[in-house]
Specification:
By secondary structure, the chain is mainly beta. It contains one helix and 17 strands. The strands form four sheets. The chain has an eight-stranded mixed beta sheet with strand order 2-14-17-1-16-11-10-9, with no helix packed on it. The chain starts with a strand and ends with a strand.
Length: 235
């Protein structure tokens, strides 16, 4: 039986995330976070006093579904990303696993939320039932550090592995405060919606090959990475 494993890689981007409390001190743009070399679709900065409740279900989920106007720095315009976001998983120094639409997501950190390697592993529990890998999904990434929150919206991003040679998809976030240092990250949250399998030409539910986890790496200490490198092996 063949199995396929996706492991992530890292690429570069820069985010100036000021430690000061004033929103005017924070400079963000779409390209602060990239996925597969493409910038996010939009961003939202929220000072800490406007989002004091960091509980993902009682605080952040209602906030993201009621504050849907984001900025597109490429066009200098604002737009509505829509609601219906669901909290998926958080890492605040502890590993957490959640099931969503038949997929299992595990977010872990190598040395806690302030340093080391973060990994979100996506496992397809039943490759013969939709949704299955490959799939597309809307992602909303939330970071809380110091007295600031940053949200980045990714529309219809595909989780897949290409046949033949290794393929890589990445996003990275890098934090700097006014002193040029990496501020501590209190929590990293992922919200999702609209998961859809990608038709592979064989009629939907996938082949008899059982995929191993698709992995998303998130690098702490001000460096977060998301990527996918397919590795193929025989069992």
């Amino acid at each position: 039986m063949k199995s396929i494993r996706w492991v992530t890689g890292v690429a570069g981007a820069m985010l100036v995330f000021a430690a000061a409390t004033s929103q005017a001190d924070v400079v963000l743009n779409n390209a602060d976070v990239t996925f597969n070399g493409l910038a996010s679709n939009g961003y939202l900065h929220v000072p800490g006093d406007e989002l004091g409740n960091q509980d993902p279900d009682k605080g952040i989920t209602p906030f993201v579904n009621n504050n849907t106007i984001y900025t597109n720095s490429e066009t200098s315009t604002t737009f509505d990303i829509g609601a219906e976001w669901e909290f998926l998983v958080r890492n605040d120094g502890k590993n957490n696993t959640e099931d969503y639409e038949g997929l299992t997501f595990t977010l872990s950190a190598e040395t806690g939320q302030k340093a080391g390697l973060w990994e979100l592993t996506v496992s397809d529990n039943d490759p013969n039932t939709l949704p299955s890998i490959p799939f597309t999904m809307d992602f909303l990434v939330h970071m809380h550090g110091g007295n600031s929150n940053a949200f980045y919206f990714f529309d219809d991003r595909k989780i897949e592995a290409e046949n033949g040679a290794d393929g890589t998809s990445t996003f990275e976030i890098k934090f700097k405060n006014n002193g040029g240092n990496n501020p501590g990250l209190s929590n990293f949250d992922i919200f999702v919606r609209d998961v859809r399998s990608v038709e592979d030409g064989n009629g939907g539910g996938g082949s008899s090959e059982v995929p191993e986890p698709a992995s998303i790496l998130l690098l702490g200490a001000g460096l977060l990475g998301l990527g996918l490198i397919r590795r193929r092996k025989l069992i």
